[in-house]
Structure formats: C-alpha cells, structure tokens
Amino acid sequence: MISFIKAAVGGLTGICRNQQGALQSHLKVLAAGLKTYEIPPDHSGVVLPEKPKLKFFNKVPNLKKAKKEMKKLRDIQGPAKTGTTFTTGQYAVVAMGGGYLHWGHMEMMRLTINRKMDSRTTFARWRINGPHKPITRKGLGQRMGGGKGAIDHYVTPVRYGRLIVEVGGKVELGEVEHILTEVAKKLPFPAKVMSRESLAAMQQQQAEMEQNNQNPWTFKQIAHGNMLGIRKVLSPFDLHNHGRFTGKFHFPGRV
C-alpha cells in the first residue's frame, strides 16, 4: 500500500514538472499587505453661515424710475475686473466667456443647487448681482421708427473669469462637482467648475506662458509696431487686450 502511494506521488510530481507553465497559469497567489488611504481634509476651521442656501433674486430691480440704456457690449467683452478670486468657498462656477444672465438662469441655478446640496455641511453664495441692465424690445408687427422700445426685461452682464456661484463647507469636490457641472452646462456662455487650486494653476500657467515665451513676435509687439500696417484693421479693443479676446470669446492659447 505504501509503495502504491509513493508511486502515485511520484507520478504527480513528474506531471507538475512537465506542465509547470500550464499549472502556474491556473494558480492564484494570495498576498496580504497594508492599504494606504489618503488623509481626509481637515474641516475644523470651516464655519457654516446661518443661511447656507442661495437667496432669491428679484426679476425687476428696485428702482424709483427705470431708465433705458444703450447696448454697451463692452460689459461682456474682455476679462472681468472684479469677482475673479475666492472669498469663503472652495469651489465655484467660473465663466470662460462673456454673456448675459437672465432671471431664468439664476432661478435654475438657485433651485438646482439648493435642492441637491446638503445644507447641513454645505453652503452656497452668489458672486454676481441680480438683474439690473435693462433690455428693450418692440412688439411684433410694429413699423420702423417711433423711438426706442419699452423695457422688456433685465439681465446681468458677465465677463471672462468671473465667479458666478461659490460653494464651500465641509465637503470635497467630488460631492458637489456633479451639481455644479449640471449648472455650468445650462449657462448661455462657456463655464467651468474650478477649485481654489485649479483656478490658481490656470492663472499661473498664463503667467508662465507670457514669461517664458520663446517667440519674439507676439501680438502685442506686432500691433504696437504697426507691422504691415495692421493698425488699419485693429480696434482699440484689440490693442487693449492684446488679441486675447475677440468680442466675448477668449483665446486661451494667445500670449
């Protein structure tokens, strides 16, 4: 009996030696180790306000007497001069182009964010003013002339780089990114969800491009030097912004 067992074990050993590669492909090696997790951020210094949700904007501004205005397209052209940095939040919807926000857009943002965010750990703040710029319109079927039309509605002009909604609290970007992305897609101009770090990185990248530029013929030098008489076809708007904007659109690669 013992000899029979030895013969069986010897035969199995011979088979394993001959088919070592085939057996190894079907073996599962179990290994134990330690998992390393990222340290969660510290929100001990975050203070939530008393009213964490977005406030309601009036459809018409509270004015004693409404005055008509010209179009003034410069309100949506070029970079924003104010509202380009964070105040209390960590994440925001940043405008990557110019345009007008209607009261319906603001209601869409307010309802979407207030319904989907957790007010116990998150707060949201407006970084824009309510509708204040009057837009006039004439009714259908009217003949030409007769002066400027009556005020139809009010809008809020937005420029490139302006923060629209700011979100903060004891949350991370992954918890609120889908909410802000849904809002950014419905705006009438290109917008992007950014954090403090990503906004600072974008501004630093633009500064490094201008500082480390290897091309001596930049738009600024060509325009101010009037090469090939280019000043004939350039506007003061192009000279002021060095060709980085055409109307309300931004050229991210222009130095």
Characterization of the model:
By secondary structure, the protein is α+β, with helices and mostly antiparallel strands. The chain is 31% helix and 17% strand. It has 7 helices and 9 strands. The protein has helices at residues 2-18, 20-26, 103-116, 173-185, 196-211, 219-224, 236-241, and strands at residues 91-95, 99-101, 122-126, 133-137, 150-158, 163-169, 191-195, 245-246, 249-250. The strands form 3 sheets. It has a 4-stranded antiparallel beta sheet. Strand 8 (245-246) and strand 9 form a beta hairpin. It starts with a helix and ends in a 5-residue tail after the last strand.
Characterize the overall form: flat
Quaternary structure classification:
single chain
Number of strand elements = 9
How would you characterize the largest beta sheet? 4 strands, antiparallel
Q: What proportion of the residues form beta strands (DSSP E)? A: 15-25%
Indicate the structural class: alpha+beta
Q: List SSEs in N-to-C order.
A: HHEEHEEEEHEHHHEE
- Determine the N-to-C terminus distance: 89 Å
Computed Rg: 31 Å
Mean pLDDT: 88
Q: Strand order, biggest sheet?
A: 3-6-1-7
Helicity range = 25-40%
Q: Tally the helices: what do you get?
A: 7
> Which residues sit in consecutive blocks of at least 5 with pLDDT less than 50?
none
